[in-house]
């Protein structure tokens, strides 16, 4: 701060006779970083020792960066002890207490009203102490100062651009010293505006410049009303800090020799005492602005200049940018033609900040002769402005002003119905506020005079409906349902209806739109010659979206009729249309689906393919497209459980079987099986070549993992299951059985599973040891006789070596439980083996061992029992076992007498189904019917 606190009296001042009031005072505005400083410097006379040259400086810091010269000059000669101090206060040190911002703003507001009221021009506010001659001299130099300011700031902009260009990567790599040196040289090249005038004249000129300069350039005007003349040419700080600096002699008669002629060449100098001045550079645009501004200032009416300031506020911040906008502003002050208005909207949206431009545009839009042509040409550009206003703050402010002017015009003028429609479309295209749009839309829909205008222009009607749909609430949309129905009567051709397809209408209006589209398309459809509908690809996509929106009952019925009509067209996306119909709530019934497909072009095309009436190349193309779409849509179709859709999928599958590869068909078959009903699955298996058991095996695995019992409960499923399982190796067969058994099928399903699996004794033993404890412990599985048969074979094939395994002993403990799903004879046999296992494990006889061996002697053959008794004798160290009663020759085993109608012998193989072998009269499920 210290360099700004210097103060020196003029060189010709007589310090012995100079009074405090005669000495020049300084008010300076300084920009320092992110704040502004305001300095007030006055001569304070003699110090305590009686020496002259004493001065007092009061610095006001902490002002916001936007604090400009228009506000700073209001504190000139402010007589208030709270603001400017002119002498030391013993109660304070160097730092004064802060001034409350509210107090500062209140004092500024009072001065502002005096300085900026219209009556202050051209004399200026009363706090400037000027004589008439001094004011006239200052007013004479005002145009030159304006030219000098533009010349100075043009140099500043050019040097700033040059400085930015010089900051290249190569200079930065050399340490940036060249750049710093260039910046210092650039600051010295910017000319300083120097005034040789009284401080009050300098302050008055600062006030006049602040009144005339546009707001975007006004913050550049930093100033000081007095600095000693010797500092003006030597102090680099002054040149870098201020745009305008004033100095003055103590005696006016010394003004001619106060500064040298070199001073006028080195700066933009203006001597108000002698009339000498430098010649600032000028160009036509600046001269025009200066003449316009100064003429208005001298005339005492700045309304035109103030309107210019408002129009260009927030615009370009450079001199060249301001001059370009000023030229546009001047050219727009006359009456604008239609082409000029179109050019402004499309190429110069920044001109919306100008009041005259907004007035001309509004006038053209309200003109019934030219308004229609203008709106047709600029509607796309207005929509572009709506997007730009989100990014450009100035444009958004200008458009808000335009919207308010439109509202006033709407309310105050008697506009025609067509003009009000145009104004509404303009507001909506510009993205006006929701409340303003809602107010305008209600006014139009409530006015009967508007309907003929909209009925004559369906495109305008569509835009109105689009804006109404986004602005109105659901209740308001329901209120205007009848009015919207009247407006839809104006759509008589498909070209006019096309604009309705993309509209997101409220639910209350959607059914009316569907009915309109249906009636128009019915007139276009000519079934005699089969001419296609005039629909583009974009139209099909939008029609599908409309079908997605059909939710209520009324819309559903119309949507089905519209879909049936569209399906007759050869170019219709049939699969997409059927999907939309399936997604309706409630979904279509069987009769409705048959009606949809009855006259469809898809079925006609399928018939031609089946009869070979299609060329080979086109046939391949069609089948490839069908295959791709079927993979995507078939799951939804099959979930509907509608015979018409199942028949369609089967026909497509049959056609694809003839042309697709085995891998493709296996993928498609798996996809169908995941969602198809059992009846369709049976037909698919019959269509599928019977030799392709690999694909069927994969279907069986998928069904086992998902718990799908198709292959256990249908005759074709059982047939293909036996055929596929017969070709599987041991490991894969056991994995498949594990997958089924983890689903815990019911007893009859388990019986079919075990019967068709054709298990060997080893496979049956493994199965029982793994899953026997789960199923045999449940009494309801007593109906699964194949499980009983496996248990029978397992018990008859046990050996002492197998009894040592933990799995075997665990299974035997399950079999002897009271609720085991086995006949008593098998339970007794399992009990016998368990006693033998305990005796072998403990290597000692058990109390019940003799009874167990006696029962085993009756159940086992002689060779098997002899090996068992020998092993027991060796382990228990017995010399011999007590011989039991021998079995009679030719008699069945005692166990076989307990089986219902007799089990087949050990060497016989059971046949599990009535139609595949001999009949099982004990099978509980009579006839395996397909289940839906």
Automatic annotation (TrEMBL):
Lineage: Bacteria, Bacillati, Chloroflexota, Ktedonobacteria, Thermogemmatisporales
Sequence ranges assigned to domain GTPase-associated protein 1 middle in this UniProt record: 189-229
Domain GTPase-associated protein 1 N-terminal: from-to ranges: 2-99
Segments for region (Disordered): 159-180
Name the UniProt record assigns to this protein: Uncharacterized protein
């Amino acid at each position: 701060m210290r360099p700004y606190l210097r103060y020196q009296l003029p060189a010709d001042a007589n310090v012995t006779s100079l009074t405090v009031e005669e000495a020049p005072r300084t008010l300076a505005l300084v920009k320092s970083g992110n704040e502004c400083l305001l300095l007030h410097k006055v001569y304070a006379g003699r110090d305590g020792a009686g020496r002259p040259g004493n001065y007092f400086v009061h610095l006001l810091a902490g002002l916001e960066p936007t604090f400009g010269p228009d506000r700073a000059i209001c504190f000139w000669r402010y007589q208030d002890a709270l603001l400017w101090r002119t002498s030391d206060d013993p109660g304070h040190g160097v730092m004064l207490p802060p001034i409350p911002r509210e107090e500062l703003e209140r004092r500024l507001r009072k001065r502002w009203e005096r300085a900026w009221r219209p009556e202050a021009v051209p004399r200026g506010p009363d706090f400037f102490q000027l004589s008439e001659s001094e004011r006239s001299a200052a007013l004479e130099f005002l145009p030159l100062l304006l030219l000098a300011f533009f010349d100075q700031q043009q140099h500043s902009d050019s040097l700033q651009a040059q400085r930015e260009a010089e900051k290249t990567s190569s200079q930065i790599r050399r340490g940036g010293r060249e750049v710093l040196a260039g910046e210092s040289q650039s600051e010295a090249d910017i000319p300083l505006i120097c005034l040789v005038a009284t401080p009050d004249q300098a302050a008055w000129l600062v006030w006049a410049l602040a009144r005339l300069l546009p707001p975007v350039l006004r913050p550049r005007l930093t100033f000081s009303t007095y600095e000693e003349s010797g500092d003006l040419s030597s102090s680099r700080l002054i040149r870098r800090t201020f745009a305008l600096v004033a100095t003055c002699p103590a005696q006016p008669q010394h003004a001619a020799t106060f500064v040298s002629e070199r001073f006028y060449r080195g700066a933009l100098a203006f001597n108000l005492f002698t009339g000498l001045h430098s010649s600032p550079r000028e160009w036509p645009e600046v001269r025009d602005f200066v003449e316009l501004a100064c003429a208005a200032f001298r005339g005492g009416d700045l309304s035109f200049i103030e309107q210019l300031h408002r129009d260009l506020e927030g615009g370009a911040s450079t001199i060249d940018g301001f001059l370009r906008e000023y030229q546009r502003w001047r050219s727009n002050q006359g009456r604008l033609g239609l082409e000029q208005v179109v050019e402004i909207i499309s190429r110069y949206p920044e001109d919306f900040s100008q009041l005259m431009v907004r007035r001309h545009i509004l006038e053209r839009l309200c003109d019934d002769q030219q308004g229609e042509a203008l709106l047709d040409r600029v509607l796309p550009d207005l929509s572009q402005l709506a997007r730009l206003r989100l990014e450009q703050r100035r444009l958004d402010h200008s458009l808000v002003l335009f919207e308010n002017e439109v509202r006033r015009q709407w309310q105050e003028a008697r506009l025609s119905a067509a003009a009000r429609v145009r104004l509404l479309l303009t507001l909506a295209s510009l993205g006006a506020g929701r409340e303003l749009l809602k107010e305008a839309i209600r006014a139009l829909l409530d006015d009967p005079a508007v309907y003929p205008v909209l009925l004559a222009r369906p495109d305008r009607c569509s835009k109105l409906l689009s804006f109404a749909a986004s602005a109105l609430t659901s209740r308001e949309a329901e209120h205007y349902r009848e009015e919207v129905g009247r407006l839809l009567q104006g759509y008589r051709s498909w070209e006019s209806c096309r604009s309705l397809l993309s509209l997101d209408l409220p639910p209350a209006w959607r059914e009316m739109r569907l009915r309109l589209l249906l009636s128009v398309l019915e007139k276009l459809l000519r079934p005699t010659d089969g001419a296609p509908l005039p629909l583009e690809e974009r139209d099909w996509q939008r029609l599908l979206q409309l079908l997605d929106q059909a939710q209520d009952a009324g819309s559903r019925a119309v949507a089905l009729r519209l879909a049936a009509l569209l399906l007759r067209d050869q170019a219709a996306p049939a699969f997409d249309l059927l999907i939309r119909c399936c997604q309706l709530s409630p979904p279509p019934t069987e009769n409705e689906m048959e009606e949809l497909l009855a006259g469809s072009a898809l079925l006609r095309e399928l018939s031609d393919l089946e009869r070979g009436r299609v060329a080979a190349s086109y046939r391949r193309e069609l089948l490839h497209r069908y295959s791709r779409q079927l993979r995507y849509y078939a799951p939804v179709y099959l979930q509907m459980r509608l015979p018409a859709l199942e028949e369609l999928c089967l026909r497509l599958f049959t056609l694809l079987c003839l042309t697709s590869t085995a891998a493709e068909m296996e993928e498609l078959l798996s996809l169908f099986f995941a969602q198809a009903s059992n009846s369709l699955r049976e037909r698919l298996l019959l269509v599928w070549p019977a030799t392709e058991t690999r694909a069927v095996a994969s279907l069986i695995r998928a069904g086992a993992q998902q718990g799908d019992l198709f292959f256990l409960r249908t005759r074709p499923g059982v047939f293909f299951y036996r055929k596929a399982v017969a070709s599987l190796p041991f490991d894969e067969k056991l994995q498949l059985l594990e997958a089924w058994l983890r689903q815990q099928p019911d007893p009859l399903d388990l019986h079919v599973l075990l019967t068709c699996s054709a298990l060997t004794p080893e496979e049956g033993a493994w199965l029982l040891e793994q899953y026997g404890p789960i199923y045999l412990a449940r009494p309801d599985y007593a109906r699964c006789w194949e499980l009983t048969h496996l248990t029978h074979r397992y018990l008859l094939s046990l050996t002492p070596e197998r009894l040592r395994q933990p799995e075997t002993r665990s299974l035997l403990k399950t079999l002897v439980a009271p609720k085991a799903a086995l006949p008593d004879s098998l339970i007794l046999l399992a009990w016998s083996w368990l006693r033998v296992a305990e005796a072998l494990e403990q290597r000692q006889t058990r109390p019940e061992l003799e009874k167990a061996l006696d029962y085993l002697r009756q159940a086992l053959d002689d060779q098997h029992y002899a090996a068992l008794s020998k092993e027991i004798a060796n382990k228990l160290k017995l010399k011999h076992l007590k011989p039991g009663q021998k079995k009679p020759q030719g008699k069945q085993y005692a166990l076989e007498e307990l089986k219902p109608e007799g089990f087949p012998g050990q060497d016989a193989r059971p046949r599990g189904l009535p139609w595949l072998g001999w009949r099982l009269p004990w099978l509980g499920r009579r006839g395996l019917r397909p289940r839906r």
